[in-house]
Amino acid sequence: MSPIDLPSLRETLDAHGLLAKKSFGQHFLLDLNVTRKIVRLAGPFEGRAVIEVGPGPGGLTRALLESDAGRVVLVEKDPRFLPLLAELDDGTGRLTVVEADALKVREAELVEPIPAHVVSNLPYNVGTPLLIKWLTGPWTPHALTLMFQKEVAERITAAPGDDAYGRLAVIAQAVCEAKLVMHLPAAAFTPPPKVASAVVHLVPRADRPDAETLKRLERVTAAAFGQRRKMLRSSLKTLGGAALCEAAGIEPDARAEVIDGAGFLRLARAL
User: Fold this and answer.
1) What tens digit of pLDDT does each residue of 94-117 get?
2) Rg of the chain in Å (alpha carbons)
3) What single-letter DSSP state applies at residue 193?
C-alpha cells in the first residue's frame, strides 16, 4: 500500500497496542499535514537518501515516502515499532529499517556513497548529543532538518547577546548555516510534552572547520561558557587566559556571551 492508502496513525497505534515510552523521550506527531510541511521544509531531496532517527509510528516516514527522496533509512531503537514500520514498505526497495541506537550507528555505512539528508523528530533525551555527533563527527550530512524542544532549537540558532547564546550555537553555526523554520505547540503531539517544540534546518558550510579546529573549539567554548559571567581572561585561564585572547585579537575583559562565532574560531586556532 502507498502511505495514502494506510490506516490513520492513531488507528495503527491502537491496532498494535502501542503507547509512547517516557524513558525513550517519545512524543508522537500524528498529524500528517504537519509532517508533510516538515518534509517540504527539508526538501527537495532530488533523489538523495534520507535518514530518519526515532520514527516511532511513522508519521514523518509516511511524508518522506511521498517525497522525492531516493531512499528512506529508518533508525529505530524501540523494537516495538519494527512490525509497524515494516507495514510502510511498498516493495520498491526505497525503505530500510535499522534497529539500532542512533548514537552508535555509523551513518556512512547506511547511505554511502550517496549524500544524505537527516530529517527527524528527535527523541528529547538524545537530541543534543545526536546533533553534536552529526556536527563534529566524521560523517557529514547533505542537510539536517530536526525537531527539538523549543529551548534547544533557540540555543542552536541564537546570536551573540541572546540569553540562549552558548557553546551549542557557536559549534552549530561554525559548521552549518542554522535557521529555525517552524514552531509546534505541545498540543500537536501525543502524548503532549510539557514544552513547545521547533524545527531547525541546518546546511553544512563550504568553509567548515577541520576536525582539529573543531576539537579546539569544543575545548574553548566549554571553558568560556562554563563560567559565562566571568571575563575571558579568567574563564580561559587554564587555556592561556589573556595571552590566548590577545593572540586571537579578542579583548580579554570581554565575556563569552558577546563573542561571535568568528571570534571563537580565532581562539580555537590560536589555542
Assistant:
1) 999 999 999 999 999 999 777 899
2) 20
3) -
